[in-house]
Amino acid sequence: MKSHSITKYQAFNGVSLPDREWPDKTITQAPIWASVDLRDGNQSLPVPMNIEEKLEYFDLLVEIGFKQIEVGFPSASDTEFKFLRRLVEEKRIPDDVTVQVLVQAREHLIRRTFDSLKGTKTAIVHLYNSTSPLQRKVTFSDASKENIKQIAIDGAVLIQELTPTLTGTDVTLQYSPESFSDTEPEYAIEICEAVMDIWKPTLDNKIILNLPATVEWSTPNVHADQIEHFCKNLKGRENAIISLHTHNDRGTGTAATELGLLAGADRVEGTLFGNGERTGNLDIVTVALNMNSHGIETGLDFSNISEIRHVYERVTKLTVPERQPYAGELVFTAFSGSHQDAIKKGIDRREKDLEADSETKFGIPYLTIDPMDIGRSYEAIIRINSQSGKGGIAYILQNEFGLHLPKTMHPAVGAKIYGIADDESRELEASEIKAAFVDSFVNTKSPMELIDYELDHSAGERGDVACNATIEIHGERTQITGLGNGPINALTHALETAGFKTFNLTDYRSHAITGGSDSDSAAYIQLQSTGSQTLIWGCGINSSIETAGLYALISAWNALHEANQK
Predict the structure, then answer these.
(1) Structural domain boundaries of the chain?
(2) How confident is the model at residue 516 (pLDDT cuts 50, 70, 90)?
(3) Would you identify the CATH topology of the domain 448-565?
(4) Is the pTM of this model over 0.85?
(5) Which residues contact 146 (CB under 8 A, 6 or more apart)?
């Protein structure tokens, strides 16, 4: 903002809490989870879900493990009312799941809400009214604190009268001082205690007091102070379940919730992937998986996060951002070369550690959790662009195509491939990476091509191998012959005899190609230019390991010839 714009704003005044205890606390267990996707989340959609979509979403929430699900605002519209009736009449609500309904403190809305709940086994009736100074001034035309408290009292009295009419339904009562985040702390306590005086909660029949950060006005530590102050000063705290309902206006909804739990809260309301008004509600996926990453059981199952995201995106018509924690397409992806190298080393090290001890705790640089634990894979962790490094490219070739490049070959392959990404200013697909590797290093034919060869394994007195080969160089075919202790050594001597040896063979590796054809093999040969320190690699791939080695030698010779021409 420009300076003249900033003057219209003022700092948020927090609660005075010099004896705060939450900074020394640790989260050791999960809260009660309550999904508000079908109400708070649905009302924020450009195109709200229809009944069939809401039914599918409800089933998804049940499958994930939510035991409290706010199914809507049944007094607000026929669609909301009919949805709840479908759930009841089609017996879609499991016995261990409690449906929650939201209602303003208005008589006709409360009565309509109770009509919608007939036949439910367990239900939470969630009463609310706005309490903040700004809401009292604007929404309620300068209503007094007493007038606002009376609205809550009147609503609570009517609900108390109607609850016995829900024969066979176990009802839990919930009250929210909406806009708790900017309501005077003592007044928030006063109005909640007034509702408690009517509902008379006990240890066996607790009230839920939901304290919404309807708008996120302050830093998370201030929110934690508010929650701790409320918990310490509320009469009958032992008879109340303190519930959090954070929004994300400042981008710190997750932090505010986690600190609120440290401050004494027992329950969390939120949505999948943070869908909600403005910048959204709390993302329960993030908070739950944060706990999982510290070894805490949550009762929620996100082991197939991609499928959950697929259903969410289809029925809400929203898209989960690529950088959304845990669920985003790119959150387990490294483009940076140094990150890729550390991840690859971490994966390799973990495999060895698990062989020694299957209970080894997870630890891979740059990864807070094992992607496989939430249905993701290692295949997409490393992706290649101009910022990538040699280790990342080697990882792709190994994990996608079974090519185990020697470590000293990584720099040459990396330079070639991320040079292509840099030139094209884009990410390269795995198939493009392999194609570039093959084009530059595998079975190359220019300027020299191995046309044909024969091997005699009984040549010479020592059982040496004779190689009779046809090569083509610069368009001319030549017959060459050599003797050696193996096929590669024999072809090397053949090249030397024909005047083409300007190198020393310094390294040779080979392996079966994992994940590919059972008959495919890869060979890698490193050559050093005579009279210099230049080291060059070539690769050969063939169904015959002998042929793969000879192709690798020719490929390395071609690369060395190209380097010497520069």
Answers:
(1) 30-316, 337-439, 448-565
(2) low
(3) Double Stranded RNA Binding Domain (3.30.160)
(4) no
(5) none
